[in-house]
Amino acid sequence: MHRLLTRLLGLLGALWLLIPLGHAEPYRQPAPATRAALDAPLPARTLVSPDRRWLALITPRRYTPLAELARPQVKLAGARFDPQAHASALGSAALVTLRLRPLMDPQAAERVIALPPGGAWHGFAWAPDGRHYILMRRTLSRSELWWGETAGGEPQLAGGIALNLVLWEGDPVWLSATELVVPTVVPSRAPAPALPGPQIQDHHGRGSPERTLPDLLRNEQDDALFEHHARSQLMAFQVSTGARRRLGEPGLFTSVAVAGRGQALLTERMTRPFSRHLAWDDFPQVAEVRDRQGRVLRELARLPSRAGIPIDGVIPGPRVFYASPTDDAAVYWVEALDSGPVSSKSSYRDRVMRLDPPYRGDPVEVQRMPYRFSRLRFLENGQHALLTETDRSRAITRTYLLPLDGSQSRLLFEHPLRERFRHPGSPLMRTLPHGGRVVAMDADREDFWFVGSGAGPKGERPFLDRYGLRDHPIQRVFHAPEGSVEMPIGWVDERRLLTQVERGQEPAQLGVREGSTWRALLPPRDFGASLRTIKRQYLSFKRDDGVELSAWLLLPPDHQDGQKRATLIWAYPREFTDGELASQAAAYSELGGLPAPGSPVWLALEGYAVVVEATMPVVGDSRTVNDGFIEQIQLNAKALVDQLRDVGSVDVSRLAIGGQSYGAYMAVNLLAHTQLFKVGIARAGAYNRTLTPFGFQSERRSLWEARDAYLRASPFLHAERIKEPLLLIHGEQDPNPGTPVLQSERLYHALAGLGQTARLVVLPLEGHSLASREAAGQVQWEMQQWLRRHLGPPLR
């Protein structure tokens, strides 16, 4: 009887699975013209070989197929990855086509690289010699390494190598001009642990003010599963012959750098104990120097977990390790000279330490810094570096020319972090023949260059400045012609400069400048006719306290003078320490680039006026700026609406406000605290700041230190004041700290409970931004329908 009952229940269960439980909502699509614009192919990215002889043209994938997004994911220690491919989601990093051509011959035929079908291709990179390249392919079962010769032949599979990219980030690591270091899946490992266990968290008094993070480890089974997938075997692969060799023993490697011309490896690997409230990159680490075979020469430091370290604080002892890419082959690191937190008082915050080959003696101090260390870049001569430090309490940064022998450094410049008009730019970099990345210098090793955007009140005029090792005036080597955004890329030789010209509605154009002559290297391209037909108007105005603001007003192709249109304003707030810097952000800047899927720009093709790039500055002391967040965005919104009223083509009685992420947070706050708008659209935002109690955006105080700021700036807690219809859109798999889909769900439930008009759209398989073609169409359809429903047709 018991067996019969069991079989009957099993049969009923099987029948139950066949009963339809309801159909999923179908994906909606926007108007055909908008759909066609969303489907326009992306322009090819260009990548010049290190020897300046070849150019790669890489066509990126526009959308990620739903089937790829639906593949099983493991979510552990703040990482999300495919357990079969041992890699995180590709998204737009995938490529569709790859073409190679000689750089300096515009008439040369392009060579299309025949990519074998199956899987998703990505990760193209030049070998330092320029005669080879590498590619990666992700299949259903593994991540593969491929390589090829630039001059001819098809790409070849690196046999016997299954890449493990779970913890691997950044550029390829080259031991020499042709030998690459890659992390691979550990062979003959035990099966992944499968049995779950209880979830227990234990704390013993020490403060842990970490930000709210998703996908953390929960129990010992998670620990074991994470280590199973993240553990890798370093392998050296020769792209000229296909030979491979193991480097040392497997480990939880998080980074590898090469010292000098391949004399040694600087590795960092993760160790236990893992944390239940930190992501993997804040777990304990061990930094080691290894020889070319992967054998440990010296352990440099054991870095503790960041548990209990304030958001702007640093761990005690050594941190941030560098391997010199030049002939000295030294390793460098940074040590705190204070207790770590920004609030602590100290004459010097950090110091830079150096250890020379054979890595056996005591390290020597190279430089002490009054501010917190930020970055180290090595000059090509191997005797100097550029050292950058940052004072976050005053939001300023300094860069020094640092002699690596420890002698007196020279301050090159100091400026606010948000500086635009007087920003010195960034150093011009180059890849050495053996693979190291350095600050480029002239043939005599006496001068180096900085490239900047040249931002000013009337727009951008990029420049190239020459700096000398000796203390002499800075020389402006190149300044883009008036009205041209021409950005230097690097020197082809002593006379010719590789530059990139950017125009508003066209892809960037690569060319060569020799004196006053500029020659394009590729035929002109564009983003498509639909984008060019949208009418554009630049707006410049002030808010009541004198801070300069700006925005772009986009109008439909058929707009006529005298017409007034329903309008969507799309914006994102940013913090500034003073009004002058905030006004710099409002300087003229051409509206360029192809709008992303789901961009409000495309609504202009459906009859609506759209305001984009609206500056929304929040000005104040960096420590307390959020105390006035509501008042500041009110000032911004009032000034913008007044300006739109004067423009004449906007019906200010039919305005919508919207934004993405922090912009969504701003938009909902404006609905709660103003009566300027009739409707709102908020995508992937955070609305209840009590769910992020240890800081958000630039806020460093905790909820208990700034309770009033957190409560007042949480629109969820003022939901009863949101009388306007609100469309909430959120990716179900949003991994962004602070913006889980729960934020939109809870706000929707609050509005529904209060009897307000609201709509919640949760996009399956999507993250913080849109990935699939289907979701892009759905979002565009949702926004257009929402505006039409609550603002009426674009024209009345």
TrEMBL record:
GO terms for biological process: proteolysis. Keywords: Hydrolase. Residues 192-212 are annotated as: Disordered. Residues 201-212 have a biased composition (Basic and acidic residues). The keyword Hydrolase applies. Residues 639-792 form the Peptidase S9 prolyl oligopeptidase catalytic domain. It holds the Pfam family Peptidase_S9. Gene3D superfamilies: alpha/beta hydrolase. GO terms for molecular function: serine-type endopeptidase activity. InterPro entries: AB_hydrolase_fold, Peptidase_S9_cat. Coiled coil: none annotated. Transmembrane segments: none annotated. This is S9 family peptidase. It comes from Inhella gelatinilytica.
